[in-house]
Amino acid sequence: MGRTDYEAKPDEAVVGVVCDPGSPAELMESLADRLPDVLTDRVDAPVRWRLDVRREELELDDSGTIPIAAESRKWLQAEGWDFVLFLTDLPRMKRKRPMLAKVNLKQRAGLVSLPAIGWFRLQRPVRDTIVHLLGILTSGMPDGSTGRHRIRRRPTEVVSPVRQLPLDDQDADLYLVLSGARGWLRLLFGMVRDNRPWRLVPGLSKALAAALAAAAFGIFFSTIWTLADALSATRLSLISAAAVTAMVVWLITQHRLWHRPRRSIDRGDTVLFNTASVLTLFLGVTCMYVVLFAALLFAALIIISGDYFQSQLGHPVGFTDYLSIVWLSSSLGTFAGAIGSTLETQDDLHRAAYSRRERQRRERWAEEERTENDDQNPRSEAA
Fold this sequence. Notes:
eight-stranded mixed sheet; Collagenase (Catalytic Domain); 14 helices; transmembrane; alpha/beta; disordered N terminus; transmembrane helix; 383 residues
């Protein structure tokens, strides 16, 4: 059992970091070795820092929020840490702004919401955010005005979208939120990254099999060769875009991936989550298209001889001619793959397309809808 009083032994400060499984835990484990030195350099506190990283799913309360006040009391008492930080992949909003982090001074606790960090190169902004929170906790200043631990803006940002929002509510004293359109874009692409769209390729195995079967027919059918030879690159691009869009629309409609707000106050959140879903599916289906294209190109180059290909088209052929027939065949196969995706179960598609937290949110929505329907049915029967 460790210490419960930070002031009792100021030569060392132990920071417990409790991470959601998945991206938060993987990211924190990659930072854990270097972070103590960064804290020593940038936080004005006469201590030697030590981190204790734990991988455990953070519990949600009835409102779908991680209550850091209650959670920190539990962890600090059990582990004897000086401070506790929570790293989650749960996207949150505060005052209708994307929330990056929050701090509870009394409980010596902070929380970082990973989706608000953004799309790529997460290690540095996560490190800076953690340093910032611990600087606030050690200084005891809710405005974080002391020390050298301000969050640094990225090279691509003229002005950082991060804003400090001092509040004294039940769970925190200070919130870090994102402002403006860039802040919302950071959260949106962070949510898409957390969904890991590339996982959709193995998740749509039946759709990919249907697409391969249809596309393979295309590359061995001379009429497709003639048609592809007559189409311009612009028209082929439009066909491929239409194929990807058709499959995304099919997935959304057939597997009920579009969420409708039940209350007007939920409309903004619903638009955000639906947009993240659409972007996730577009990227995932595009990845599937690329895999299909590569497989067909390999098959076409091996099986279709240049002399026979030339005799069918009536002119000399080159690599670009192979690309054209594979391009058109991949698009036609993707249209067929949309139909094949009907064979996928809704649970399998949700596991492939969404992060664990997004699946929990959708399960919560479904449960709330069932509860509302159950409440309305007795009234309708009585009427």
